[in-house]
Each structure stands twice: as structure tokens, then as C-alpha cells.
Write a structure and sequence with these properties.
The chain has a single domain, classed as MFS general substrate transporter like domains (Growth Hormone, Chain: A), CATH 1.20.1250.20. By secondary structure, the chain is mainly α. The relative contact order is 0.16. Helix 2 packs across helix 3 and helix 9 runs antiparallel to helix 13. The protein is built from 15 helices and no strands. It starts with 6 loop residues before the first helix and ends in a 7-residue tail after the last helix.
């Protein structure tokens, strides 16, 4: 049994990337008003954050494999801290967008470290269990972070949410020295780091069919998450005129479903294969999307209409851990680079899809159900072609 990093620390690392928008998401309409700007520009603080978050993993993955997890993570957290100061002292929406872009670049390293650490487990089912435990901890973020964020920005202003982010980055930076373990497959390299060498690794990794199927399933399911994230605050607060606190409660209930789904997935994988679980999860996603579409046609936009998002999230949390586990099956020393490829594609494509659909869904909410249904069908179709390693 390898000397692995504790689940709780990996979970906090991965949740940290979610906290960077969950904490301040309830304040997004207020931030838009504060800077006297448009909703479209306000949404860029989310969509561009995720776009850069996704692309930057192609940088952090090879750096982690070369320099090790600990030093690379600490450097990224220092960059994040400085970017967060930029958010706090932003004078206009353009400055905030730039600072958020730098935040996205820096914080994605924590996510790569967390999920690539699951590759320390050689068995695919054990690896999926680790990913589920990490995801359960991550799911606490959308339960409590919006509630905390709504209270903080209501009492102290939206800048206070970024102060909390800065403090969390300092905690993770210091604790990494004592808690984060290096991969058992990693050895300090005597050669200089060259991105040219990394390109050869990318070519090797991308030659595996199972990786591509996994990437497309994860990307389609994550697109569902991103579409909901980018549009939820505007639909609930602006269109339906609910308070930021009500939005935070609704988002918290959604996060609870992610925890339930990951726990169910752990139990289901004790009895059924990983591909079976992926197939089941994708069918749940289709069911939730179809129910939402029916509700939209019956009564239009309402909180009741958005309830099927819970079913979709249940399906996503059952589908993603085994998909991620199988996608990493062929990699040991390149685990961080493989993780970076998966996350880069899913984040980039999902951010583009959410960015395009976000501004449309605000004015035509029924498109939310249609887009979620399409992504869910893609997951189900591809789940028919993924198999465990022989």
C-alpha cells in the first residue's frame, strides 16, 4: 500500500477550485451592478476563468510530473494569492476579469494534483473509490460556499469573499509541506524541463482509444454542470426574483445530491462493473433532462422546473468517477499529464459551450433543458463503447 496523501487534503485541494466561484457566485449580479456593466461581461468572470483553468492544465501537468507535486503546487498557490489581491483591488470589470484569468491559471494546479494523485492506486475500482471520496468532499463546496458567500458579501461587500480565498490559499500552501505526498512513481529528474519533451508525452498519451472515450463522456457531463453554473444565479435571482440566500440554499441542495450520488457510486461499484455504472449514470442524466423539458413546456421557468437538475447531478456523480478511473488506467509516470489532458479538454469545451449558451438561456430558459438533454444523450451513447482494461 503506497504512502498516499490523505483523502481530506486531496478533497480540499480539488474543492478549492470550486470555492473560487462558489463563494462569490451569489454576488455576481451585485458585482455586475457595482461596476455598472452588462450581464455578458459579468459572466466572463466565470466563463473565461474556466477557459483558462482548462487550458492551463496543459502547463501544470508536465510541470508536476517533472518537478513533483509539492513544489509545483506551492508555486501555483503563491500566484493565486497575488491574483486574488488583484481581484480585491479591481477598479473596473476589465481588471476583475484579468485577475480572474490569472486565478484560473493558478488554481487549476491544485485540481491536477488532487485527481492525478488517485493514480497512486493501481486497481481501477480502488482508484474510482478515491475519486468518489474526493468528489464527495468537493461537493461540500456548493452546499456551504454559496451560503457563506452570500452572508459575507451581504455584510461586508463582495471583496470580502476574495479575502477568504486568499486566506485559504495561504493555508493550503503551508499545509502542503507537511501533508502532500509525492507519487510513488516519481523520481527527481536530473534533466532540465523542456515543453518539447512534454509534446512527445502528449502524443503517446493521446494514442489510447479508451482515453478519448473517457474524455468525451467527462466533457459532455461537465458541460451540463457548467451550463447550470453559468446561468443559475441569473435565472434564480434575476429572472425569478429570489434572494441570493435562496439561491445559495438551492445550490446547497444540489451539492447534497452530488454527495449522495458519489456514495451510491461507491456502493454500486462493489457489485457492478465500472462500465455498468457509467451507463446507469448517463441514463439518469437523460431522465432528469427529459423531465425538465416536460416541466418547461407545462409551466415555464420556476424553481419546480429546475428540480430535475438534482437527477442530472445524481447521474453525473455516478458516471464521472469510474470514467475518470478507466481513462487513467494506462498511465503511471504520466498521471498528471494525462489528468491535465482530460481536464483541459473538458474545461475548455465546457466553458465554450456554457459561454455561448449562457447569454441565450438567460432570455430563453427552455434552451437549458434542451442543451442538458443533448449532453446527456452524448454521455449515454459513448458509455456503450467504454470497457475495463483486460
Amino acid at each position: 500500500m503506497p504512502n498516499t496523501t490523505p483523502f481530506w487534503y486531496l478533497g480540499i485541494l480539488s474543492a478549492f477550485s470550486l470555492l473560487t466561484f462558489d463563494l462569490y457566485q451569489p454576488a455576481l449580479p451585485t458585482i455586475t451592478t457595482y461596476f455598472n456593466t452588462t450581464q455578458a461581461l459579468g459572466q466572463l468572470t466565470l466563463s473565461l476563468f474556466f477557459l483558462i483553468f482548462g487550458l492551463s492544465q496543459l502547463v501544470w501537468g508536465p510541470l508536476i510530473d517533472h518537478f513533483g507535486r509539492r513544489h509545483t503546487l506551492q508555486a501555483s498557490l503563491l500566484i493565486f494569492f497575488l491574483a486574488t489581491l488583484g481581484c480585491i483591488f479591481s477598479k473596473n470589470i476589465e481588471m476583475l476579469i484579468i485577475a480572474r484569468i490569472v486565478q484560473g491559471f493558478a488554481v487549476c494546479c491544485a485540481n491536477v494534483v488532487a485527481f492525478s494523485s488517485s493514480r497512486d492506486q493501481d486497481d481501477s475500482t480502488d482508484r474510482a473509490r478515491v475519486i468518489s471520496y474526493i468528489s464527495m468532499i468537493v461537493s461540500v463546496s456548493p452546499i456551504f460556499a454559496p451560503l457563506i458567500g452570500s452572508v459575507i458579501f451581504t455584510q461586508y461587500g463582495w471583496q470580502a469573499t476574495f479575502v477568504l480565498m486568499a486566506l485559504l490559499s495561504v493555508f493550503l500552501l503551508i499545509s502542503a509541506k507537511f501533508t502532500l505526498k509525492e507519487s510513488p512513481h516519481w523520481q527527481p529528474s536530473q534533466e532540465s524541463f523542456l515543453f518539447r519533451t512534454s509534446l512527445a508525452s502528449y502524443k503517446k498519451i493521446l494514442s489510447h482509444r479508451r482515453l478519448w472515450i473517457g474524455i468525451f463522456i467527462i466533457t459532455a457531463s461537465y458541460s451540463c454542470v457548467m451550463i447550470v453554473i453559468v446561468t443559475a444565479s441569473y435565472l434564480i435571482i434575476e429572472n425569478l426574483n429570489y434572494s441570493p440566500f435562496t439561491f445559495a440554499v438551492a445550490f446547497g441542495i444540489n451539492g447534497s445530491m452530488l454527495i449522495v450520488g458519489n456514495y451510491m457510486g461507491i456502493k454500486l461499484r462493489e457489485k457492478k462493473s465500472l462500465p455498468w455504472n457509467i451507463h446507469l449514470g448517463s441514463l439518469l442524466m437523460i431522465s432528469g433532462s427529459f423531465i425538465m423539458l416536460i416541466l418547461f413546456n407545462i409551466e415555464g421557468l420556476s424553481l419546480i422546473t429546475l428540480v430535475p437538475v438534482l437527477i442530472i447531478c445524481l447521474g453525473i456523480s455516478i458516471t464521472n468517477p469510474p470514467t475518470f478511473s478507466l481513462a487513467l488506467s494506462d498511465y503511471h509516470q504520466e498521471a498528471a499529464t494525462a489528468t491535465a489532458i482530460i481536464n483541459t479538454i473538458r474545461m475548455t469545451v465546457a466553458a465554450i459551450i456554457a459561454g455561448i449558451l449562457g447569454s441565450v438561456i438567460i432570455y430563453r430558459p427552455q434552451i437549458l433543458a434542451i442543451s442538458l438533454l443533448i449532453c446527456s444523450i452524448v454521455c449515454w451513447f459513448l458509455s456503450l463503447f467504454i470497457f475495463e482494461k483486460n
